[in-house]
Amino acid sequence: MDISKMKLDVAWLRADGKYRSKVFPNNSSGFAELLRWLQSNLPDGKATAHVCMEATGTYHEALALFLHDQTVAVSVVNPLQVKRFMELEGVRNKTDGGDAKALARFCDRTAPALWEAPSAGVRSLQALVARLDTLLELRQAESNRLEVAHDAVKSSLTAVIASLDESIKDVRMQIRKTIDDDPDLRQRGELLASIPGLGDRTIPQLLAYIGRPERFGCVKALIAYASLTPMIRQSGTSLDKRRGTHPQGHREFRNALYFPAMVAGRYNPLVAEFWQRLKAQNKPGKVIVVACMHKLLAIAYGVLKSGKPFDVNHHPKAVCG
After folding, report:
1. Cβ within 8 Å of residue 131, ≥6 positions away
2. What is the pLDDT of residues 152-176, one digit of tens each?
3. From CA 181, how far away is CA 171, in angstroms rounded?
4. Are 209 and 253 in contact (CB under 8 A)?
5. What is the rounded (10 degree) CA torsion for 61, 62, 63, 67?
6. Using one digit for the tens of pLDDT, what is the confidence trace for 250-274?
7. Rounded distance between C-alpha atoms, residue 29 and residue 117, angstroms
8. Angstrom distance (rounded) from CA 258 to CA 191
9. Long-range contacts of 74-78 (CB under 8 A, 24+ apart)
10. Domain 2-110 indexed as CATH 1.10.8
C-alpha cells in the first residue's frame, strides 16, 4: 500500500504474478472499504493477507493500527529500503500505483518482519503527548502575538492564553494518570526518572515514542529511529560531506532530546564527561549537543533493557546482536 495524506493506493500481487489495484480514501470509511475488498478478493479472506506499507510520518499509523486490530498481518518498512529495492529493479517512473506494486513485490521477496502495535496505554500516551505539543505551540504563538498586540486585542489574546493554560494543565494530568494506571508505563517511567537530564516533560515523550524497548533489536536501531544517525556522503577523494543527522526517522523524537541533552551535559556524570571530552577536541557546539543526545538516548535504552535504574558506575551496554 502506498499511503498519502488523502488516499491509499493498493496493489494486490496475485499468485499468477498479476496485480489487482484499487484506491481508497485515507480515513475510517476507506479503511472499512479496504477490509471488505480484502475479504472479497483473497481466497481465505483477510487471514492470508500480508500488508506492506512504508513508514510515512503519521499518515500510515491509523491504517496500521486498524489492520492490526482486525488481525491482518502488517509490515511497516523503511522507505529507504524500498527505494533501494526499486533501484535494483531498474524502476524509472514514480507513481503512487507503481510504488504500491513495488511494495507488493518487496513484501513478497523479502518477507519483512511483522509490525508490533503499541499497547492501549502507549496509544493513549502518544495521542496525549502529541496534543500537549500542539497546545504548547499554540500558547507560544499567542504569547508572541501578545507582546506586539494592539490594546484592542490584548484582552482577547489573554483570554485565549488562559484557556490554553487550563487545557495544558488538564492534558498533563491525563498524561500522569495514563502512566500511573499502566504498570508497564509506570515501571519504565520510574527507570527513566533515575537518569539525570530527563524530567517530567521528556519522560512521557520517550515512553510514547519508544514504546516497548524490545521492539528495537539494538541501540543502533533506536538511534536511527530517532533520526540521530549522522548523514555521511563519501566517495573516492572528491566527495566527503557530513550533513548533520539523517532526515529519515522520527523528528519529534529527536527534537524532544535536545534540551534534555543540554541539561545532562551539566548534571549527568556520563554525559558531562563526554561533553567535556568533545569540547577539548574543539568540536562545534551543535555537534557536541547532537552527540550528547545520542549518548543520552543510549543510556535510556540500556536502562530500559536492563530493567535497572541508572548507575554511573555500572552503565549497561546495549549492543547489536
Report:
1. 171
2. 999 999 999 999 999 999 999 999 9
3. 15
4. yes
5. 100
6. 778 888 999 999 999 999 999 999 9
7. 21
8. 20
9. 74/114, 74/115, 75/50, 75/51, 75/107, 75/112, 75/113, 75/114, 75/115, 76/115, 77/52, 77/53, 77/103, 77/106, 77/112, 78/54, 78/248
10. no
